Amino acid sequence: MRKVYYIKQTPSGRVFDAVNGIVIALLMFLMIYPFWNMLVLSFNDGTDALLGKLYFWPRVWTLSNYEYVFKNRDLLHGALVSVLRVVVGTVTGVICNALLGYIVSCRQFYGRKFMRILFIITMYFGGGLIPTYLLMLELGFMNNFLVYIIPGLFSCYYMLLASSYIQNIPEALFESARIDGASELKTFVRIVVPLAMPMLACIAVYIGVGHWNSWFDVSLYSRDGTWDTLQIILYRLLNQANAKADITNQQQLYMSMRTIQPETVRAATTVVVVVPIVFIYPFFQRYFVGGITLGAVKG
């Protein structure tokens, strides 16, 4: 029977562990509490919320804020457009950036260094808002779903992340595939994609969250509201742009808004937008960490 030896902890070690635990608990509280307070505010009566001192639990429970948010007829349409944008934008972005990363990491491609430098320049210099807007206008992307997808197909940062990860794959695997007659595309699909799943998942998280949170480009390019996303509807609700315009009778306005305040509506709409990411992100966290650490070995 094996003996188990326990190392006796010194008093200084116990003090360090205690202080370390307190600091970590404090940091966790500072990160979690703002979200919890937003949730509490969203479930509280708006008039009562104006009194303040809402910390850990609602004083007057109500679902009026969420009823007010979900009564918006454009909410479901915006959610569908947001989901479509995330799915299409993430899939195309991952494929394009992974292919670009593979190209600039191929030793047989003599223009890879020039292409890498060309993309790195775009990290430091851009055309600006007005030239970009005019370009989208000339391309006919106004009120077009493609304006959300095409401008973000390639990213220098994601390209560097993908190429750094692919460079860690043994070159012998690529050489054996080429000897067997595999094309570069087949080599990418059969070898790179299975081995680079952590990196691809990491890029997918970045791109997906970026598409989900984006709203400024929607305000620029979706003029008639056909391709309005959930985030731009949230923005309009927060600014109360269309909420009171639909109610003409002041008595009806008072009756419908007496338990609702902009602060509680803001909290409810924020919760509606944040919750999907909160539930999805933990499933990709291990790929996210793995892709960042393994892809950062080489530059």
Automatic annotation (TrEMBL):
It comes from the Bacteria. Residues 79-284 form the ABC transmembrane type-1 domain. InterPro entries: MetI-like, MetI-like_sf. Keywords: Cell membrane, Membrane, Transmembrane, Transmembrane helix, Transport. The chain crosses the membrane at residues 15-36, 83-105, 117-139, 145-166, 187-209, 265-284. Gene3D superfamilies: MetI-like. It is a multi-pass membrane protein. Belongs to the binding-protein-dependent transport system permease family. This is Carbohydrate ABC transporter permease. It comes from Candidatus Alectryocaccomicrobium excrementavium.
